[in-house]
Hints:
Layout: H1 40-62, H2 72-83, H3 87-107, H4 109-129, H5 136-142, H6 154-178, H7 197-236, H8 246-270, H9 276-306, H10 316-321, H11 323-338, H12 373-398, H13 402-412
Helix pairs in contact: 1-3, 1-9, 1-11, 1-12, 2-8, 2-12, 3-4, 3-7, 3-9, 4-5, 4-7, 4-13, 5-7, 6-7, 6-9, 8-9
Amino acid sequence: xxxxxxxxxxxxxxxxxxxxxxxxxxxxxxxxxxxxxxxxxxxxxxxxxxxxxxxxxxxxxxxxxxxxxxxxxxxxxxxxxxxxxxxxxxxxxxxxxxxxxxxxxxxxxxxxxxxxxxxxxxxxxxxxxxxxxxxxxxxxxxxxxxxxxxxxxxxxxxxxxxxxxxxxxxxxxxxxxxxxxxxxxxxxxxxxxxxxxxxxxxxxxxxxxxxxxxxxxxxxxxxxxxxxxxxxxxxxxxxxxxxxxxxxxxxxxxxxxxxxxxxxxxxxxxxxxxxxxxxxxxxxxxxxxxxxxxxxxxxxxxxxxxxxxxxxxxxxxxxxxxxxxxxxxxxxxxxxxxxxxxxxxxxxxxxxxxxxxxxxxxxxxxxxxxxxxxxxxxxxxxxxxxxxxxxxxxxxxxxxxxxxxxxxxxxxxxxxxxxxxxx
Length: 423
């Protein structure tokens, strides 16, 4: 459960429920299978975010340290921090709240609970079998908090999100203030990997439950704030009828980017420093600036959608419709490339006592060179962009992603009919 505390953005996160949010009328709960129509803007946001999240997660997959990057790698890390770090995971969390709130309003608590139980099982398998950075399980557990606030208005949800967000960021800033005079080396959130696959599975299985609880408690207020922002967007139809919200989208674009870009630059500076105080301060800067930048991106793409000028951005809708499948595939492929039990192209961090002078962890790098920020950025762009046409090809033939289809069969039953064009 890496986000928001560690630097890895997991993961695209779990696919938010894939239907448009409820419209103002009628208000009654609908029964039956999944909805058969959807808006393109949420899918585009989700697809773009998949790419951005992969870019940020490469640091965790490859095992390099941000503050040790130099030259071209330093330039790539600055670009990542300013434009991506914290931004796209925030969009995904808000989209999760948007979709979960819509599902609850349309289908009721029974379908809502079945879906999130299925996501919890998928997240647990992802964590244990593939990657310690899973966020699907955290999202599935924390989504239960949407049940008692389902009756709240959009304004009430915004207030609640504001209280939780300010409180969580405030605690982070207080922690940074308390560490300001510390001279200890900076901590790392990289995993303690063992050479063999079975050993890692066993270790992750033992730690999954405690870390799920710990991550939900520590990151819960912030993630719930993002969920509630998404739920508020569902109640106002911000993403399904953006043409009716042009003034708000303009304010989001200008204000979000106006705040998010400077905070991204501050994060890039903090990620050049090796001291613990910089690492502690980087967390609230990353997530606060990430939320601002995320709202700015939503504003920009929302304005393009409202004016019918999405252009090539519409291509990302295909990968967005298969976000859960694509997110899991990213983890599978990148761990196979970088982890010591496969191609072993990364630093493969090993548990145990650090060697003298090795720093926070003992490097188990074998005979391969360590990949830096520039190489991993190029690989993330190559793989993430390749998922766009591959998703379009798959959807044209099967109508839905394989993991999405599995979840729907669990939630709605094996006989539910799927609409190949929209579902």
